[in-house]
Amino acid sequence: MTRTTVDLWVGIFVTMGVAALVFLALKVGNLGGGQVRNPYELTANFDNIGGLKARAPVKSAGVVVGRISSIHLDKQHYQAVVTLQMDGRYTFPKDTFATINTSGLLGEQYIGLEPGGDPEDLGAGDVIKKTQSAVVLEKLISQFMFSKAEEGAAAK
Question: How far is CA 123 from the centre of its chain?
């Protein structure tokens, strides 16, 4: 093999490696375009969203049914307003329950939807009324430590 042939093959492998790294970065960052068909928007209000971020998935029964398009603070009620971009193939009853969950112990946060039994479905622009805020691990630990400190003080 000549020097130029070796250089050509090295260049091809380097290009393939860079392409693979870009692909993985897009997958990890949830930036690879999803296949959302006929999207519609829903909103949900939460007292605390923890580390929830825009572009995080919306899941029902473990299936991605949408993505979070934006998050902002309602200045009147001091709640986080989360706008969900839902896939038009999936509809949910009006009494659907939205929770903020974590994948694993320290994984990414996402919104989980648990459908209710109402015969009427949520439509574009509707608000999910039943929500449960994120569980903040630091807050749980501090409550536990404070309660243990109180028990120790009461015992003395």
Answer: 21
Instruction: Name the residue among 148, 151, 52, 27 with its Cα closest to residue 107.
Output: 52
- Beta strands 57-60 and 109-114 are parallel
The values of phi and psi at residue 141, to 5°, are -65, -45
Residue 74's identity, in one-letter code, is: D
Query: How confident is residue 152, by pLDDT bands cut at 50, 70 and 90?
Result: confident
Q: Using CA of residue 139, residue 107, residue 116, residue 90, what is the dihedral sign?
A: positive
Q: What is the pTM of this model?
A: 0.69
- Nearest Cα to Cα of residue 113 among 47, 53, 68: 68
CB 93 within 8 A of CB 77: no
β-partners of residue 64 are 59
Question: Do 60 and 115 contact (CB within 8 A), yes or no?
Answer: yes
DSSP codes of every residue in 72-139? EEETTTTEEEEEEEE-TT---BTT-EEEEEESTTTS-EEEEEE----SSBP-TT-EE-EEEPPP-HHH
Q: What is the DSSP letter of 65?
A: E
Whether 31 contacts 23, CB under 8 Å: no
Answer whether residue 32 shows pLDDT above 60: no
